[in-house]
Every structure is written in C-alpha cells, then in structure tokens.
Amino acid sequence: MKSRFIVIGAGTLGLATAESLLRHGAEVTVLERGSVGREASWAGGGILSPLCLWDYPDEVNRLALRGMVLFGAFAGELYQATGVDPEYQRSGMLVLPPSDVQAAQKWCTAHGVSMEVQGDRMLLPDIAQVRNPRLMQALRARVGQLGGRIVEQCEVKQIVEEAGRVRQLLTTQGSYSADGYIVTAGAWSKVLLGKHALHADIKPIRGQMLLFKFDAPPLPHIVLQKDVYLIPRRDGHLLVGSTLEDAGFDKSTTGEARTMLLQRAIALLPVLRDLPVIQHWAGLRPGSPGNIPTIGRHPHLPNLYINSGHFRYGVTMSPASVELLMNVINGTPQPFDVSPYLWH
Question: N or C: which end of the chain has fewer CB within 10 A?
C-alpha cells in the first residue's frame, strides 16, 4: 500500500516537500490555512543566497550552499514539466561598502564561491534569483500534475495523538488522517504544534518590500548594501527590501519602513526619486535562532515531521531541506552532518 502523507502548509517548503513525496510514490494531501503560497513564499525577494554568506554560521551555509547547487535543476524541471517559468537566473550580486572585503574573500576562496573584487565593491557572479510568485505557480501546478490534493482555507486546530503517534488532525474543514504528517507551516508552525513544538522555536518576523517598474531592467545585478537590496526582474520590475521587525502576526505595512526603504533605495539608484512605488507589502518570515531551521522527525511521535523555521532563506534552502527530510523518511544516508537541524 502507498504511504499517505499530510503536509501542513502550502508555501515553498510545503509544496516542494509534497512534490518530492509524490515523485517517490506517496499519496499526498496539502492543507493550507489560507491560500497557496501567499505568505512568506510570495512576499520574499527570491535572492538565492544568504545576503553575506561570510556572516553566517556553517549550519546555515551548509544548507544554503546545497540548495544553491540544486536550485537550477529544480527550477528547470518545474518549468519543463509545467510550462510555468520560475524565472531562475544567475544575475549575480554586487555587494557595496561598507563590508570586510578581506574576510569575504577569504571565506569565498575557502568555500569555492566565485568573487570578483572591484575596488571596495564585491561581485558574486554566480548568485541567482527566482521570482517567488512564479515559483509558487509552478510548484502548485506540479503537485497537481502528480496527483497531489491541495485543500485551501483549511486551518489545523488540533493534532490528536494516540498511543504515541499522531492519529488525526482536527481542522476547520473536518478531520484528516494519514500515515505521516509533515509541518511546513512557516511562521505559524510553533503555534500549530502547541505542546508538540518542543525546542522548535519559530516565530514571525515581519519584512516589508517596495516595488517599482521600469521599461527594462535598470540594473545588471542584484545590489546589496548592508541590509537593503535591489532586485531587478527580467520584465523591468525592481524590488527593494527589506525590514526585520518583531511585530507578532501583524502583516501591516508602515510609513516608517516605506520612508526608510525609499531613502536607502534612492541613495543607491537616484532615478527612483522620480518613479512611483507601485506596491508596498509585508510578509512574515519563520524566524528561528541563528537562522537555523528544524528538519526531521519528532522525537516522541515517530509519524510527525517538520521542515520549517528557515527564516530568510526558505526558498534558497528548499531543495536541500526537502532532500534531508526525504532521507530521514526513507532511512537513507545524508550528504552532510544534519545534527544542527534535528528536532529535540
């Protein structure tokens, strides 16, 4: 008999997990409390790299670098199968001062990451981007093609355990049961799990973005200065981000963030002074200590799994995170030490 899985949360991690399970022959139902991919996955900028890799611990970079290596093929297969182009492209990222060029060079050399130093600027030519809403469309289409079921507006209210296993989920659309249950609910994961969360310390961190439109891409690369970035899309859209705000589950946009992002963006690209902001939005990232996600099996409930808490890098890490989780489920060897991500 086929294994039956329920995936809770239809963002990038949820749909990528579902897609992999389906390819491995499982039956999959995805439950989504709102609409598919409309939370952090939709709101993010789609830079496929930690902003300054050399500033992050090995636990973050190990997973991010693996995801970066796998992403081109992942996006290409989705495009080929569905006809929906996630717009994966190696646009490169230009890092402007202030930054520690020597430390960055040393790290990049040690980790095989290409870098070109241009005076006090650094270009990382291999950094890629993806267009998040298009990625979500492609993933949704692929899950449907493979026979997966997605139930929207279906919030999980209770995880019912019996004899040391999850027996069923009580939701706003009735009860659901399966052989295995995977939590990929992003910023909502800890709340959803309640007492079962244990040390999976995941909380919402708000990020606000601005959007502009040009006739053609105004920049050849992603541009990063400290914590603000400009992301040029193929069709002339330009994203400006982002804030990091501990505001609970409040997705409001604020005038303060708009002003700050606008001032910083104009300083980098003065032509923006004369252009209107065509959209301003906020999303809630699944914040976690040290940006380190939780991936694996629950220590006390063997049919409950998690793939969540990726903070700013869920899209970047998604192919690698799914690979790690599938290895746990299938009992196959891991590509590297996964102890930092275990649920405990």
Answer: N
Distance CA(29)–CA(37), nearest Å, equals 15
Q: Give the predicted TM-score (pTM) of the model.
A: 0.97
CA distance 62 to 338: 10
Residue of 135, 132, 131 lying closest to 143 (CA atoms): 135
The span from the CA of 267 to the CA of 96, in Å, is 12
* Boundaries of domain holding 159: 1-91+127-201+290-344
Residue 337 lies in a domain: yes
Question: 237-241 and 203-213 as β-strands: parallel, antiparallel, unpaired?
Answer: antiparallel
> Strand runs (DSSP E) across 36-164, as ranges?
47-48, 93-96, 116-118, 121-124, 128-129, 149-151, 156-162
**pLDDT band for position 2 (50/70/90)?**
confident
Domain count within the chain: 1
